[in-house]
Design a protein that fits this description.
Order of helices and strands: HEEEEEEEEEH
Number of helices: 2
Radius of gyration: 22 Å
Oligomer: single chain
Mean pLDDT: 78
Strand content: 35-45%
Number of strands: 9
CATH architecture of the largest domain: Sandwich
Low-confidence stretches: none
Distance between the termini: 40 Å
Strand order of the largest sheet: 5-4-7-8-9
């Protein structure tokens, strides 16, 4: 009778250890996969911004430019902040107050953002929280590398949140 109790204790301990390895492996896999995740965001200038039936985000009401943002993923929330470039840290520093935000946006929905797109250092930072918990953070600026004018994503990075780790474990 004593042998069966020891066998059940050992099997319970092994099960717990395997479960911990599963959790650690899922989180490790998320951080490894994060390197290979490409942007889900597409930016473009709007030719006729009033003719588009979309969600509106207003950074500057008097801005002459309208940028269209489309994401291939479902968006839990999108927030726009003013930012400044810090040359000592070589990164953009977000100001605390959110300029505009929207929540629960389906995939492939067009967002119309009225803002100034600077030629040099970007002034606005966009933070997108995807449905899977990953955060996409980037700044928008003018893209003068082509013959025509365009808008480009600057400083794109993906940040894994606790929600992304839980989503990875529970999916």
């Amino acid at each position: 009778m004593m042998v069966w109790t020891e066998i059940s204790n050992v099997s319970a301990i092994i099960t717990c250890i395997l479960f911990l390895f599963y959790i650690a492996g899922s989180v490790w896999g998320l951080f490894r996969k994060k390197k290979y995740i490409t942007t889900s965001v597409k930016l473009d200038y709007a030719e006729n911004p009033e003719n588009i039936d979309v969600f509106d985000l207003v950074v500057n009401k008097m801005a002459p430019e309208v940028v269209l943002l489309t994401s291939s993923c479902n968006i839990s929330s999108i927030r726009i902040y003013n930012c400044e470039y810090d040359p000592q840290k070589n990164r953009f520093i977000r100001k605390k107050q959110c300029i505009d935000s929207k929540k629960n946006i389906p995939a492939n929905t067009v967002l119309r953002i009225r803002c100034v797109v600077p030629e040099g250092i970007p002034e606005n930072q966009i933070v997108i929280t995807r449905e899977d918990g990953l955060k996409e953070i980037f700044e928008i600026g003018a893209d003068n590398s082509n013959v025509g004018e365009g808008v480009s994503i600057a400083g794109y990075r993906i940040k894994a949140t606790i929600g992304a780790c839980l989503y990875q474990i529970l999916k």
